[in-house]
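Write out the 3D structure for:
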Amino acid sequence: MRSNPNPTIRQTMAEDNIFREVDEELRSDRMRALWRRFAPYVIGAAVAVVALVAVNEGWSWYHASKAAVSSDELYAAFELADGGDLAAAQAQLDSVIADGSGNYPTLAEFRKAGLLARDGKIDEAVAAYDSLANSQSNQRLRELALVLGGTLMVDHGNLADVEARVGSVATDTSPLRNAAYEALGLAQYKAGDFTAAQTSFEAVINDPLTQSTTRNRMGYYLAQLQAEGVVAPTADADAAASAIDAIVSSDAPSADAAATTQTPAADASAVTTETAPAAQ
């Protein structure tokens, strides 16, 4: 038979239980006091986080919705332009420029400038491209506007007009350097500075990233200069001219005679079609 614990032991155990209960009660009181003190801040922070997330999601949805509307309006303007209704297309583009979201207003401005040029309003188109070049923070978009404006000035301005626009783009670091060199070379040819034109065209030919069609066109320009006797013969011009002759003779024999009557300045429109799909 098991004997009862010693009275001293029982007393000690009872005291331990009392102390434990008191300690737990004190901790509970402290926690309640801390919660009453900091609960408003904790709840406020939680509400603020939820509110910020909701606002961010709402703002993102709003911009995405506006961008989708701007995209639809821009493509509607493209369709109107392709259908020949330039007045309606320009009105639609004006709406995107005024109320569009994201980068769509900038795209609309480029397209509108292209439509002005297509409609024969060259001065207005050049002014639009100049305005874009002066307002763009994106360097590549600024260079694109300068090249497009400079290309138009090949036939409708002078060498200084073209140089003022494409001179800063005709550098080894610009992705649009070949288009800039071509416009510059055509303007130099038109101004009678044949040596400078040769240098500009050769800069495009010697660029390893130049496409074959562009390199052949530069070779044709050089061959034309050589045929006129205004520059010394070059290997690049001879090779490119031979390649072009082979293509012309095999694919379009009847076009050979017409090709020989062209001058580099008459081919300036090729620059626009290659460098500015957004503006055509």
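The radius of gyration is 37 Å.
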